Amino acid sequence: xxxxxxxxxxxxxxxxxxxDAESVDMIMTSPPYHNLRVYSNDPHxxxxxxxxxxxxxxxxxxxAECERVLKPGGKFIMxxxxxxxxxxxxxxxxxxxxxxxxxxxxLENNFQLWTKxxxxxxxxxxxxLAQGNLYYRNMKARDTxxxxxxxxxxxxKKSGDCELIKASDITLAEWADWADGVWNIGNSGIGxxxxxxxxxxxxxIRLWSCPGDVILDPFAGAGTVNKVAIENHRSAIGIExxxxxxxxxxxxxxxxxxxxxxxxxxGIEAMKERFNVxxxxxxxxxxNAKAVKEEQKRLQxxxxxxxxxxxxLEAQLKALGLKAKEIKEIKDNAVMDNE
Length: 339
What we know:
This protein is an alpha/beta fold.
């Protein structure tokens, strides 16, 4: 199988219209925030919207196109976080919740919330240092603000049904960790103001797509989703407006690949084989755990039986007229003999 890495420099709303309907298996992205960082001077850049009303309107247009190109039942994974006000930038403290507005836009465009995770990106200490709020001496009763070190990973499902495959591209050990609704993943990236952690992207791609699928990121930044998708045997489409970020991905990521990375023998059948191996491991673990539990149960019953026998012997010794002290000496000697 030959993978493809489609890397596009342009406005995502324009470029999405060029893609065929229902041609993408999964979408993963983190849209720019309104009026938080200057990503570019391009008027098409969502971060340059004059108001939240304009921002949500423009984001809605992009999501509508994403819905068109996504296959029925496909997953749209959006990473975002609430807007944190700062005194230096906003002359006030607190937060602006965008969860409700994003959910409304998704519902209006044929998506339903499927599941979600909370991404703990770094420690509270690091977040508070960045905000200048670490020092305990600055605490004010009734006015405490917690660290802004958590983001949201919302997984939406497009209406309709996709092919359901009884398999998974993750191991038992990974599932034991990833099933938790709180993900502790360090933030990292290359040369971008808001880097996308590769470990986070890999987790989502392997949880909600299959080898050979096509993964789309309409706000692709420095190409993290494309990189991780290809390295995990998926094809990728990334659209990035900022030419500097677009070039960064080529120079620091894609140009370092050997052409062999696009050739893979992986696929649905190979994934099923891996899954069956993990199932056998699970069965073995279950059998071993059951055996251990049965042995513990047997030992507990044996202890109960021994204690009952001891009590019976003590009763017999008392009936023979032995005193408690004498009985204790007999028990202590028996313990020493067994040791």
